[in-house]
Write a structure and sequence with these properties.
Oligomer: single chain
Radius of gyration: 25 Å
Number of strands: 12
Strand order of the largest sheet: 2-1-3-4-5-11
Shape: elongated
Order of helices and strands: HHHHEHHEHEHEEHEHEHEHEEHEE
Number of helices: 13
Distance between the termini: 65 Å
């Protein structure tokens, strides 16, 4: 900083104010300091700055999944893209942390203190999970992507999963389907529970018996969709429709149905959830419930930035879903 000030012909305090973004500096002085910064290749010492400001300028995104899920599934790519877009426009740096095992979650929990991060974004939480409560108790603002079973975090952004499940099954019923297999998401995630409850709501609203639905568990992965679909075909009469709790699960189900000699949508209609890019590449194209994942990421980041600025955003924000029809129904 001394060298920057000397080259710019100003005092060290003035140079420091320019580098730290203070508005109380004249335009010519600011220009001179910025030229000196560029010429010398000056980079602020974050460790030294944090000792003075008590801030790290770091936001952590913690995803409670394994690396192969995070980097292999469209949902996470869209969420990270939305979050990254907003954080890139702020003074903060984004750090991605994976916590796919109990050991990793313990290590991450130790890291999430005000010594290392200013704020935390939590995504894909499985219950029971007390990480949001623990981090908040340390004075570190958090925003959760999705409800967390059993607790009420300080700030949550979610999509209307229950309404999405309702619209999927309502659509199948409107097509005359009466034996519907529901391949669920994880039962320890609020999104998985809500999509199943929405499906049940649609059956009840139509005045049909609960056993209209054949429920088989999955975990949102393509492999679990295959396993669940195979189990449905093995254990009872063939369904005339499938509602899969994710597009990847629907892809797995389509593969099993094709292998069993069943046509889609002739014999079995199929609806997925996400409206991810894969829907346009299945044969036939996959009808799916659109959830605005990228927008959810942007809203999560916006709310965390608001909290870091001392604001008090709503405790819960819910984004709408909508059904997108394609050839599979």
């Amino acid at each position: 900083m001394e060298e920057v000030a000397r080259l710019a012909g100003v005092g060290r305090g003035t140079a420091s104010r320019v580098v730290n973004g203070s508005p109380h500096v004249s335009a010519p002085t600011r220009e001179a300091v910025n030229r000196a910064v560029d010429e010398l290749g000056y980079v602020p010492n974050r460790a030294a700055r944090s000792l003075v400001t008590r801030r790290t300028d770091i936001v952590a995104l913690v995803v409670s999944e394994t690396g192969d899920r995070i980097f292999g599934e469209p949902y996470f790519a869209a969420a990270v893209r939305g979050i990254g877009e907003r954080i890139a426009q702020s003074p903060y740096q984004l750090v991605l942390t994976m916590a796919g095992s109990q050991r990793e979650r313990g290590r991450v929990a130790d890291y999430l203190t005000d010594q290392y991060v200013d704020g935390v974004l939590l995504l894909s939480l499985h219950g029971p999970e007390d990480l949001p409560t623990v981090v908040e108790s340390r004075g570190v603002p958090t925003v959760c992507g999705g409800r967390v079973p059993g607790i009420q975090p300080a700030c949550v952004v979610d999509v209307d999963n229950r309404s999405g499940g309702f619209s999927a099954v309502e659509h199948l019923l409107a097509r005359g389907r009466r034996r519907i297999a529901v391949l669920t998401g994880p039962r320890d995630m609020a999104s998985g529970l809500d999509r199943l409850e929405g499906a049940r709501d649609a059956v009840a609203a139509a005045g049909l018996p609960a056993d209209t639905l054949i429920v088989e568990p999955g975990d949102y992965s393509e492999a679990s969709g295959e396993v669940a679909m195979r189990q449905v075909l093995l254990t009872g009469p063939t369904p005339d429709a499938v509602f899969a709790a994710s597009d990847l699960m629907a892809m797995g189900a389509l593969r099993v149905l094709r292998g069993a000699g069943l046509s889609v949508p002739g014999d079995v209609a199929v609806v997925g959830f996400d409206d991810s890019p894969v829907c346009r590449h299945t044969d036939p194209g996959l009808t799916s419930v659109h959830q605005p994942v990228e927008e959810m990421g942007r809203v999560m980041a916006d709310l965390l930035l608001a909290r870091l600025a001392g604001e008090h955003p709503p405790a819960q924000t819910v984004l709408p879903t909508r059904l997108v029809e394609r050839g599979s129904t």
